[in-house]
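Table S2 (text version). Query chain:
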Amino acid sequence: MRSLPLLPLPHGVVLPDMVVTVAAESAAAREAMSGRTVGDELVAVPERDGHFGSVGVVVRIEQRGQLANGADGAVLRALRRVRIGRGEVAGSGALHVAIEEVVEPPASDAARALAREYRVVAEELLAAIGSRGASALLEGIEEPGELADTIGWWPELDDERRLQLLETVDPEARILLAVGWAREALAEARVTADIRDEVNEDLERTQREAILRRQMKAIQDELGEGGDGADEFATYRARIADGTLPTAVAEAATKEVDRLERMGDQNVEAGWIRTWLDTVLEIPWSTATEDALDLDAAAQQLDEDHAGLEDVKERIVEFLAVRKLRHERSSDLQEDSGARRGSGTILALVGPPGVGKTSLGESVARALGRRFVRMSLGGVRDEAEIRGHRRTYVGARPGRIVRALVDAGTRNPVILLDEIDKVGADWRGDPSAALLEVLDPAQNATFRDHYVEHEIDLSDVVFIATANTLDTIPAPLLDRMELIPLEGYSEDEKVAIATRHLLPSLLRRNAVTAEEVRIPDKVIRAVVADHTREAGVRRLEQRLDRLVRRAASRLAREPETTVVDVGLDDLRPALGPTPHREDPAVRTQVPGVATGLAVTGAGGDVLFVEAALLPGEDGLTLTGQLGDVMKESGQIALSYLRANRERLGIAADLDRTVHVHFPAGAIPKDGPSAGVTMTTALVSALTGRRVRPDVAMTGEVTLHGKVLPIGGVKEKVLAAQRAGVTDVILPVANGADVDELPDAVRDAVTIHLVDSIPEVLEIALTA
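Corresponding structure-token output:
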């Protein structure tokens, strides 16, 4: 044991055989070097956060003097590892510590094998970085421990690893660390070299192409075949100066033309600038169509395009009337900036497939005399699809809103945002969040596309959104739109649509005339009643198309046939057997089965609820792929029955397992409106009284037996009518919705408005 002055190293780590220059920055370092001359020894120990390491290195002073910055310093040569012991302050003020020489054990065979591997890897690493001359550091070193210390010269090795290497006394463990780090460094160096070679190849190819293009241009100029690049710039400047661009956009475009002219064709950015200029110049900044604000003509156009949907067409005419008044009184509104900012209205047509949402948007465009553009948003998950990509990205382009304006060629088209409820979100952003600005009349006058980078006025654009359901539309986006529900068509409305719209279109599509193929109304009504039970008319169109094609085929193959009359007997050969329908009269023949009503993405539908009592412990089992809300409705229904069993005349024991099942288990179901149906089915099972086969019901139930209002009344009543139900039980709070039903539906179905479960049971259960 001996003691030496302690030289703290707050930065860096010194390993044996290193020669380093150290500045006496701290007071402890100055005291350690004070009075020391060339040849004196110190012990250098790494210092981290005020703590010294347990292993240091004995260093010998090779040279003393001032450094370039004027600080006192010394050149030190590291000699050997030592363990650090107790310390004490000498009279000179320097801290002396006891040191113990580290005696390394003889190298094992495994250590020598690792040393040979390290030498090979280190030489490959030096060759990869182009430092073959540095391989002299490895010459003459045979011991594995000493060889491992040479990894400390690697400039990419951080101080934490150097400290770990210093404190690893065992030579075999140390050479194992060095081999692992050398392998990592070699892998990184190879990747870096590959990238460097690839970049160099790209640069050489770009330079070669630039030279060849210059030579080709010179040859074309000599032959008189070269184009004058100045013509392109003059064309751009002329298009900018024609006054169609806003001032800020024109200034930005002029700067881009100047940049393009300075950089030349060989620059990669030249193509990007041309694409941006072409896009900006194609946007109809000031081109607009005049609105045809004849309300009578608009109403006539809507009536010609669509049968039924009177409330919807009335709301659209109101929308056009407001635009007419704003146009006539624009001088008064110019004084009110707030009125100008909120001038737009965003319509949202919500309803099942096939009810004519898209065609209504086209009718609005025709009624206004505007261009029509349809944007399908189904499956869009990238925010850049709406706002565009930033110009810094390769392949950047404007968003769909700007592209729709370019396609329309005017700044005030009718843009249909189709399937807005199918917009999704992922790691690329949320497109519905980008739509918040587009569909806000108070903000879209200053819409900014990321690619264009300038404000675009969308306040004159008529946006019409369509959706099948509102559940997936975010609340902030839904709040910006005025909802117009399209619940579906009655049987009479479907027959009228088929006669006035579908059939003439199908005849033209199949190259036949109404005189050649005749389909009477009774056949159409049979197709509607027996082969389609949908809210819209898309399936009806497919069935009629099949009938027309079959008739057209007969005309083509039988030249002597001039007229084909399609009768009821032709339906089965053409359309196949009538699809199986669940008949409420059959399903409700036993107690415990009730007929309910529901709304799906395809419109209204009937659903059956089955209830049964099973021996076993007290509990409730719900099956049929139900959501949480529907499961809670089942719990509420059972709790109400247990609390009111005597009042309801239930003599059966309720302390048993109650099983409630919703058939069609492959279809997910949720919502509170099945509460009344579940309660009725349970009472039927408990009392043995069957549910009337001609009754269907819907409504939310509370713990006290109150029947609360629900939505989708028209779709549900139409579904009940299609299923052959004659009586429908609705909550009394939905009385206003009953007034909106078509007269034909109200004549065919008896509506019972109820306020409590006892009223439901009195109507629904047999005596």
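Notes on Table S2: Residues 337-342 have pLDDT under 50 and may be disordered. The chain has 28 helices and 25 strands.
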